Batch of 2 targets.
Target 1
Amino acid sequence: MDRRQEILTTAGDLFRENGYHATSMRDIAKRLDIRGSSLYSHIESKEQVLWEIVNEAADAFLAQAESVDTSLAPEKRLEALIRGHLEVTVKELPNAAVFFHEWKFLSGDLREKIILRRDAYEAHFRKTIKAGKKASVFKVAKVKMASLYILSALNWSYQWFDPAGSFSLDALTKHYTELSLRSLGVKLKSKT
Amino acid sequence: MDRRQEILTTAGDLFRENGYHATSMRDIAKRLDIRGSSLYSHIESKEQVLWEIVNEAADAFLAQAESVDTSLAPEKRLEALIRGHLEVTVKELPNAAVFFHEWKFLSGDLREKIILRRDAYEAHFRKTIKAGKKASVFKVAKVKMASLYILSALNWSYQWFDPAGSFSLDALTKHYTELSLRSLGVKLKSKT
DNA sequence: CCTACCGATCGGTAGG
DNA sequence: CCTACCGATCGGTAGG
């Protein structure tokens, strides 16, 4: 890992722990045992660092969603999206958390770009639910409402999920998939 | 509204828009057309302001949850909790957003106090779901997982809900209640 | 990668 | 409620 990557990784950890504005460039430097000013031979500005972290996370979420075969049955498609979302969240925890929480501190252009990518990502969920509704597999009054609901549940997971905690990623995925499909009216074998 | 309340309200708005650390005391003062130093005859410190905002929101959420009659049927209890949660979120949007997002910038004692109150709040959901599971009204594999799922979906709503937007609070409540009950395996009249 | 330093701004206090 | 001010820290640059 080169210095630039180390800086981005360290910044991601700190932005997640303390937030973008509460983290100073000197905090990042201290973790790497160098002086704050030395960062600037590798990076351009604090905002550029935030941008790269957020954009990298967006890449990961989008790549995953785009890899889902749209010819699959809607339940399978949604299941794949949920699994992928949770996998990316857990694998990139700091970056994902920063993506969800700190993107709004980007200004102008960068902010708009990231909003577009978020919308593109959410569209994968909306389209899948819409397809399931059309195929009468999902029973849902408002597609937008349902996809907001499910995405909300998924989005919040970075807040509490602890890879070392009592749930594995597999267990989380299995239960969240079941809860989501059920919320859309899909009948599953009951597990009391 | 006295000056102290005005300061808290203004601070809540700004903390929501820009975050606690990105908001300076002078920003708050500017909105009230006074100098930053003048704030200090009404408040003790910036952290105390954050604490009061967060704690006020916690009061509102807890009061609502505690007012739900525990002798109701589990579906009705959960419905009341969901309605109450969304009502408080929408009515106190800035404070609720700060409660969800900025509480972690509290230090020591205050931080621990708020964590306890959050846990107490979540317990209302867990207990209701557990009661429903025992009564075989809810079909749920892991109570903790299911309550995290539903609370996550609810918690995220402050991120996107716009009182002036295309959904009313009533519509939001109705749909989220339906989605939540269904996710727990409750059968509802289907709405395609 | 460092030292040295810039102007700006931070939360907060003194004193009126 | 104000002016005046404190020490600390901010993101970032110059120059080596």
Target 2
Amino acid sequence: MEHPINPLELLVRRLRTHAPLSQASVDAILALPCTMRNLEPEAYLVREAEKISVCAILVSGYAYRQKLTSDGTRQIVSLHVPGEPLDFQHLFLEVADHNVQALTTAQAAHVPHEMMRNLILCNSEIARAAMVYLSIEASIFREWVVNVGRREAKGRLAHLLCEFAIRLDTQGLSGSDGYYLPMTQEQLGDALGLTPVHVNRTIRALELEGLIKRDRRNIAFPDWKALAHVADFNTRYLHIEQH
Amino acid sequence: MEHPINPLELLVRRLRTHAPLSQASVDAILALPCTMRNLEPEAYLVREAEKISVCAILVSGYAYRQKLTSDGTRQIVSLHVPGEPLDFQHLFLEVADHNVQALTTAQAAHVPHEMMRNLILCNSEIARAAMVYLSIEASIFREWVVNVGRREAKGRLAHLLCEFAIRLDTQGLSGSDGYYLPMTQEQLGDALGLTPVHVNRTIRALELEGLIKRDRRNIAFPDWKALAHVADFNTRYLHIEQH
DNA sequence: CGTTTAATTGAAAGCAGTCAAACTATGTGG
DNA sequence: CCACATAGTTTGACTGCTTTCAATTAAACG
């Protein structure tokens, strides 16, 4: 039973961190037909303005949501770690309002849109879990509005680093002393509403102050408390203790 | 049957713009117990970190969601017009992650949290409508991240003005040539991630360029197309034609 | 190794913030 | 109806965070 596991196990585990699921509900989820897809970095899972036909769950690797402005700038609006459903946001909408891309090489499990939707609508326990998940994602979007709107560069970057740490931890993916952040400084800039140049300066400022340690893209946190303070970071918006 | 109408009629009307509701579902919604509450400007409907017990629907007046940072700055993360449910965001969460306040004098219909939640979970048609609404709100949050993260002051303000116009229109509240924007420049700043001083300069810049006309807080749009262009405004994210 | 991509650094420019003051609108009490 | 108080808007001068532009250094890749 160890290997290979049904990729939908990951989704079950994720949903169960937020809401109770009976064995019957779990079985119903695991019974969904699903196909695996391998993704190169930057591969699109969803394109704005297109209709949706599948519901992807991130199995390995990282992904992000993104929107482009008319003058060609990009804003990353969320990051995703393995186990997270990527398409709940579009499950009940006709047309995609943003893009979803792989950040690294990644694997996604694809479930037919319609089947996922029907399962949610027919099973109130799963419906509840889906709504909790949708609500938490919305909460994270709100926090990002605050982050980009009201924190200066250093706090903004620190906040993203803190959030990513906790998100990884929630999925049981946290290393003992930090993590590999799979983003270029340009991508960080797009997530923070900053230019890559200023991201660079801000990272080194955090490093100089001893708030983070770096080796390539590996980040460690010698003084988490101080970093969280600079970030004005409070986990409440992640609703971790929901269930 | 004209007056007074059940305040929940407003909610029904709102949900029906996004998803179909049978007469049975409508009746179930209208049968919910609800009490009216009058709100002064700035009155809190929800406070961060508190548990939720009621689900409010905005009947008249305006409201907004807001978060405070540790250094006392405020970020408004969304605006709400009459007819919109204010607490779907917290319906499936234990503890509030943000504050909700009245922007003007307002009236809200309060439905017990539990009853609203149960109705949604027991009626898949209503569940669907709620999920569509949640999804659209999430989409708006994403667009706000883009707005604050990637547009400069003029476009940012223009975008807010455009969104508000369409939101009012969706609720059938649009005047023939503009609307009364019930916000101080300080509140606008909090919604845009700008200082009130810069909001002032930006408003007058838009006015000087003939993109808006002003009389007190009444705003008119002599050249909507040009304004929408400056705002990089596209209605897709509002998912208006959903149903 | 050479090539490409990403990270780093410096100097200059610009958008937005800060501070402070004046002005306008609105409302209240005498 | 006017004096005064309050809240909100407007303006100016100055500062500063972030961007822009350009160039250099370092890392990743075949």
